[in-house]
Design goal:
Elements (H helix, E strand, L loop, with lengths): L5 E7 L3 E9 L5 E10 L4 E2 L2 E2 L2 H18 L3 E3 L1 E6 L5 E10 L7 H11 L7 E13 L2 E3 L9 E12 H13 L3 E7 H9 L2 H6 L1 E6 L4 E7 L2 E8 L3 H8 L6 H11 L14 E3 L5 E3 H25 L10 E4 L8 H9 L4 E3 L7 E2 L12 H9 L5 E3 L28 H29 L10 H24 L1
Parallel strand pairs: 1-7, 3-20, 7-12, 13-18, 18-19
Antiparallel strand pairs: 1-2, 2-3, 4-5, 6-21, 8-11, 9-10, 9-11, 13-14, 14-15, 16-17
């Protein structure tokens, strides 16, 4: 991809809507050219757009603000992501008898087509994660050309409620913004955040969002399981409001003093934090709320990882992402409760980033939106059109009058007549000049004709000629 191409993306999450535009360099680095965000709590809940009109207005606003940062360029289409509470995977298997000696491409295509007819009530199959094929007693990733008698295609269908995709697409349609491609958010994030070793040896990516927590399990470079827990960082914030503080102040207390594994230091007086109204809250009391809800989220996450069947096969352990991963000691409490020693926090994507460092902080909150930029392939911008029509510039080239058509060009008699008139007029002009010359020297030519006499003579001659011409024509 050339460095001149610019990718644009828009992400709608439960806490914010964000837009980004940037370039990919040949070495895989990303240079961010524009980044904007707005609050999305009034039209998105747990990943589902519930107010399409407000979402459309926000999308249009985000694109306009991106255009303002892109100088003489404007966004024509964007990459978007779909995620939310109803997103999960379902296994399916399709078996066939192999006709002939080996598996043909037509047989594999037929098995894949049958999988897409798998019934999912009130849900859509958004994508299919490729899995292995079982041919007799062996597993094959590429089945074409393999000899055998029976084949079973193993599929992992990524499904979600119909409204999740429908409402998202309608929001972009109402905003008159084209979607270049609708990507599965956790899959795009995993490809940008996880290393090749982690995906091959096995790991679970846990994205702690505002209202949901998403778990994606990988093994042998394939997605093996995906599920969403309807709990997130906002649940911790709302619990803190029980201390009789506003939600905004509760959020600030969580970010500043929140600790998932808080241990009180030995002291005669307990540690406290002071509120804006002067009240003081003991940190131990505050973090009792934080720890209780964090324990609940972690328990749900670990239960789903065990349910996937790969808990004992995650050689690369657990990777945390998302804004909730910034909670102090969240990785430590996870190790303690699950006995998993390999836990790391991914503050950003693997690709080197440059530009807008003041807004794209390495705190995990921008992992998904940047991952859409990594996944993008097509140019998403074009030069801006001139807002005012260009006034025509004066042309100094002299005007040339085109020759007038000769109406009698095919009439031989009329051509002869025109030539005689030209010769006579030329002769009269010469005689006139000669007379004026003699008058200047005081000499008058004898028998010279007067001007009026010449005019009368020419007029009489013209009448005779035209009379003869038109009489001949009538014959």
């Amino acid at each position: 991809m050339a460095i001149t191409e610019i990718i644009a993306a828009v992400e709608l999450s439960s806490s914010r809507i964000a837009g980004i535009a940037g370039q990919k360099t040949p070495d895989g680095a990303l240079h961010i050219l524009a980044y904007v965000q707005e609050n999305a709590t009034s039209f998105v809940h747990k990943g589902l757009v519930y107010n399409i009109d407000k979402a459309a207005q926000a999308i249009a606003s985000i694109v306009d603000r991106l255009n303002a940062q892109l100088d003489n360029l404007c966004v024509t289409k964007v990459y978007a992501a779909i995620g939310g509470m109803s997103l999960h995977t379902q296994k399916n298997a399709v078996s066939r008898t192999i006709e002939g000696d080996t598996v043909s491409q037509a047989l594999v295509d037929s098995i894949c087509d049958e999988n897409l007819t798998y019934p999912v009530e009130d849900m859509d199959i958004l994508d299919v994660a490729p899995q292995e094929y079982r041919i007799d007693n062996t597993r094959q990733v590429d089945a074409v050309g393999v000899a055998g008698h029976n084949i079973t295609g193993q599929f992992l269908n990524i499904v979600a409620r119909t409204a999740l995709k429908k409402n998202l697409e309608q929001s972009f349609q109402h905003a008159d913004v084209e979607i270049a491609e609708l990507l599965i958010a956790p899959i795009a994030q995993a490809k940008a955040v996880l290393t090749e070793t982690e995906m091959r040896s096995g790991c679970a990516l846990v994205d702690f969002g505002a209202t949901t927590t998403t778990i994606s399990v990988y093994k042998s470079n394939l997605l093996r399981y995906l599920a969403v827990v309807p709990l997130g960082g906002n649940n911790i914030t709302r619990d803190i409001t029980a201390l009789k503080v506003e939600e905004g102040e509760a959020e600030q207390l969580k970010l500043t003093y929140g600790d998932a594994y808080y241990e009180e230091e030995e002291s005669d007086t307990p540690a406290v934090c002071t509120l804006s109204d002067g009240r003081m809250i003991e940190l131990a009391t505050l973090n009792d709320f934080v720890a209780a809800r964090t324990d609940e989220i972690i328990d749900n996450v670990w239960n789903l990882i065990q349910y996937s069947g790969y808990a004992d096969h995650l050689l690369s352990g657990i990777v945390f992402a998302g804004g909730g991963s910034n909670l102090k000691n969240i990785d430590e409490i996870f190790r303690k409760r699950t006995k998993q020693n390999k836990v790391r926090i991914a503050p950003t994507v693997q690709a080197p980033l440059s530009g807008h460092k003041e807004t794209l902080k390495n705190d995990g909150t921008c992992c998904t939106i940047v991952a859409l930029l990594v996944a993008g392939r097509d140019n998403c911008v074009k030069p801006k059109e001139m807002s005012q029509p260009v006034a025509p510039q004066p042309d100094d080239t002299p005007t040339v009058t085109p020759p007038q058509p000769d109406l009698f060009e095919n009439d031989e008699g009329m051509r002869r007549l025109t030539e005689e008139i030209r010769i006579r007029r030329q002769k009269e002009e010469e005689e006139k000049k000669e007379k004026e010359k003699k008058e200047k020297t005081g000499k008058t030519e004898k028998g010279g004709k007067e001007k009026n006499g010449k005019s009368k003579g020419l007029s009489k001659w013209w009448d005779n000629v035209t009379k003869t011409f038109f009489e001949d024509s009538e014959m």
